Amino acid sequence: MVIAIDIGGTFIKIGLVKDGIIIEKTSIKAQANIGIEISLAEVEKIIQSLLSKHSISFNEIKGIGVGFPGLVDSAKMKVLSVNDKYNDAVGFDFVKWGEDAFGAPLFLENDARIALLGEWKHGAGKGKNNIVMLTLGTGVGSAVIIEGKPLIGKHFQAGNLGGHSIINLNGAKCNCGNRGCVEAEASTWRLAELLKSDTRYSGSLIEGEELDFKSLFKFAAEECDLSISVRDHCLNVWAAGVINMIHAYDPELVILGGGIMKSADIIIPFIQEKVDKQAWLPWGKLKVLPSKIPNRSALLGAYYLVTTNLKFNN
Amino acid sequence: MVIAIDIGGTFIKIGLVKDGIIIEKTSIKAQANIGIEISLAEVEKIIQSLLSKHSISFNEIKGIGVGFPGLVDSAKMKVLSVNDKYNDAVGFDFVKWGEDAFGAPLFLENDARIALLGEWKHGAGKGKNNIVMLTLGTGVGSAVIIEGKPLIGKHFQAGNLGGHSIINLNGAKCNCGNRGCVEAEASTWRLAELLKSDTRYSGSLIEGEELDFKSLFKFAAEECDLSISVRDHCLNVWAAGVINMIHAYDPELVILGGGIMKSADIIIPFIQEKVDKQAWLPWGKLKVLPSKIPNRSALLGAYYLVTTNLKFNN
């Protein structure tokens, strides 16, 4: 039995996973601005209720796998750096929390990396050994598998900063200190400002509506001029981000996940066409696929993380 | 004895290397537009004269190492793709050429990758195992070493396309089919157009002069407004390209090489400052260094390529 936790900017997902199957899962609203310590206290209570519901005792828990939205030292199980979310997580002792709460070893990894582990072993990436994944959501995350191994890098951040690829040199200011990063140009945290700062906002169809990507795609389909141009901007930004990842890592497959991919029917064909036309691919055609198990990839990735670290059967 | 050949867009360098020491080197003007077959016929003659000058017989030649400015399949020793240089190189049988001309095994690799191999073993990268190198010249090349190994990728192109990282979404058209690639925004092939297409060109100090980077830096220092703004644009483009490489590969060191680095005294401090301020480096300070052996890195890298492939003593 493995406890799987996916800490996101908007939701925290929690699951109990046994033999590669999620036997129970739930999620709570994230309170990223309040911090990791208070959030995990709530997570602990929820897990305890799940465990007692299934009559699972502590000694059945082999480990805890946690995905975190920031840079993670997955050797020391520490958060190295955050970007305006869970600011108290740097320095927080996750391992001690797992030990105190459940008496089990805890393994920590970047959230995009565990989502990719899940897709690789159970989803869209099955059977491939060179994969790039981007998650489009509150921010833009990324992770990479090259030659059958997650790319980690000297300081644990290789492959994770696809959202901070600069694609618009003189573009919008990003939380990270650069200008024109993929996520500063097109992500949920940036969308409202993209719309509101446009002179066409006042009097537009989308004015006063929920300013998320679901709305944006809806109003663009209803011929709202502003929504169309912001939608097209975002699609072009993501396409450039995907092409930069392809040029950087030479994958055989790109997977797109994250909350914004609820509109995969619009996003995937656009990006596939851009990749077909513009990416440098002398070897052939590279497929861009949506996450196949969007609600399970992170939890199954967290499970895989625990099993590979403890080397028990996956 | 190893024959080392570095095929560039502007020059072809040729060297004889023994026990890691270049005993003789020369270079000829490249004829990239004419093609690889005619160019190599000339290279062959030059090598024959070098060999006879040093009284070296064919049976002393252990191998031939060749760097090529394009994507290279370094398992099959074939050029996979070129970008407006040596268009007949795709499909050309380099191994047969080496066999026919010198009766020796030939090993082919991307030019930026062999330059990095040289810097890694003999130059600025000595002792480091996670390095990104960019070469600023006719085009912009790149190569990467991660965890002590050259990054190759599924189709041999990982790490080599840093010049085609899109840093200006709506920018200048690149030969590769994208817009706003690093080399389309700032490289020797692009510079003349950058200057001439500006309304300030006519009547500027740089008008009618040689439109290369040496001139650009000179006239910028002499307060030519156009030269200053084009120089600053190029510096910012390279800085964004370097930051994208840092974010992609998580290196401990960045090396900058290529002909434009004759102006390293201006380029390095600018990019170092940008990296210090804007790259996401929670672990500490990352050094940006110029190539330490700019005239020897590719030849010594080609030598290393041969020795590691033939597994004789380096």
Give a written overview of the molecule:
The structure is a homodimer of 314-residue chains. Chain A is 37% helix and 21% strand. Chain A has 314 residues and is α/β, with parallel strands linked by helices. The first copy, chain A, folds into two domains: 2-111, 2-Layer Sandwich (Nucleotidyltransferase, domain 5), CATH 3.30.420.40; 124-290, ATPase, nucleotide binding domain (Nucleotidyltransferase, domain 5). In chain A, helix 6 packs across helix 7 (225-249). The first copy, chain A, is globular, with a radius of gyration of 20 Å. In chain A, 52% of the residues are buried. Chains A and B meet through helix 7 of A and helix 7 of B.
Care to give the gist of this entry?
2 copies of one chain form a homodimer. With 314 residues, chain A is of the alpha/beta class.
Features:
homodimer, 314 residues, alpha/beta, Nucleotidyltransferase, domain 5, 2 domains, 5-stranded mixed beta sheet, 9 helices, 12 strands
As an assembly, this protein is: homodimer
Helix content of chain A: 25-40%
| Rounded mean pLDDT score of chain A | 96
Report low-confidence residues of chain A grouped into runs of 5 or more: none
Topology overview:
2 copies of one chain form a homodimer.
Chain A: E1 2-7, E2 11-18, E3 21-29, H1 36-53, E4 63-68, E5 71-73, E6 78-81, H2 94-102, E7 106-110, H3 111-122, E8 131-136, E9 140-146, E10 149-150, H4 182-185, H5 188-196, H6 213-221, H7 225-249, E11 253-257, H8 264-278, E12 287-290, H9 297-310
Parallel strand pairs in A: 1-4, 4-7, 8-11, 11-12
Antiparallel strand pairs in A: 1-2, 2-3, 5-6, 8-9, 9-10
